[in-house]
Input
Amino acid sequence: MRRTATLAPHWKIWNPNTDEVHVMKYRRLGRNGPQVSTISMGRGATPVQFDTPLEAEFNAAIHRALDLGVNFFDSSDAYWGTRHEVLLSRALKGRRNDVFIATKFGNIDLPDGRKGTNGRPEYVHQRCDDSLKRMGLDVIDIYFAHRVDPNVPIEDTVGAMSELISRGKVRFIGICEASAKTLRRAHAEHPLTALQTEYSLWFRESEKDIIPACKELGIGYIAYAPLGRGLLTGRIKAVEDIPENDRRRHHPRFFEENLARNVQLVAELETMARRYDASPAQLALAWILAQWEGIVPIPGTNSARNVEQNAAAVDLAVAAKDIAKLSEIFSIGAGSGERYMPNVLKGVGI
Output
């Protein structure tokens, strides 16, 4: 098994908004997991094709993240038709020992166009081998069940994932979008390093029972869509601000009847951010970091400039009263519209 990624404690981050220099910080993922960058990196919203100008932008974003001390990168065999895994591995070529890589399995496309799940043990092994080959890896640092298969006991799925650890193909395991009850069952089968579920000012339902369960069990929380899929950046004011082929047009929070209310909430975030000489995105990330040291947000972007701004949020000192004020403004239920369409919501929180 390869050596543990080396952490550099003096990565310097220039904040283009304030002309200040910040230093990347690190958090331990779970009670016994690896140390990863406090701001890590997920998948950008815009799909990237091979050997295009967009791939060059994608590579530049990954390389800038590395320059800034980001050492944890998240992928899935379901992202861009497995293309994201390949693109990420190409962008990280030559830097494998400096990073932790996560990928996932189990979120599948059904013949009728609907989304499905597959958590069968034989599928777990097959997809792990496929991801290892696609990414040119000897071992996956953290392997996730992308969704919980309602037709397979979670113990069977996690049991197969634990076999991957014993065979040296995977270092740590986790699950995504699981209920607190399922999380406990999975952790009892084999210790989980992390749970990955959406979490942001806009979506806070995990605070009810999932985050408390993670704290109790010593499981890290990887917060995907920490900027509300771009909503909390302040750049989306109307449906027309979203490209026509962008999948966010199919997310209820961006429907015209919901977006107006959500934009009103973001306006209050923007007002506070100006007092801190920060961007709304930076303030939204700082709010997450203030909630619990076990949370690692993974904002997704294909822009090097966005990477810089996101990374600078590690050193944004926000007064406790303002953290509390944001929690009040964005209280659970304050936003308008579900995060997914009803057919997709059936597959989360199982």
Notes: Confidence is low (pLDDT under 50) at residues 1-12. Residues 262 and 335 are 6 Å apart (CA to CA). Residues 256-275 form the longest helix (20 residues).
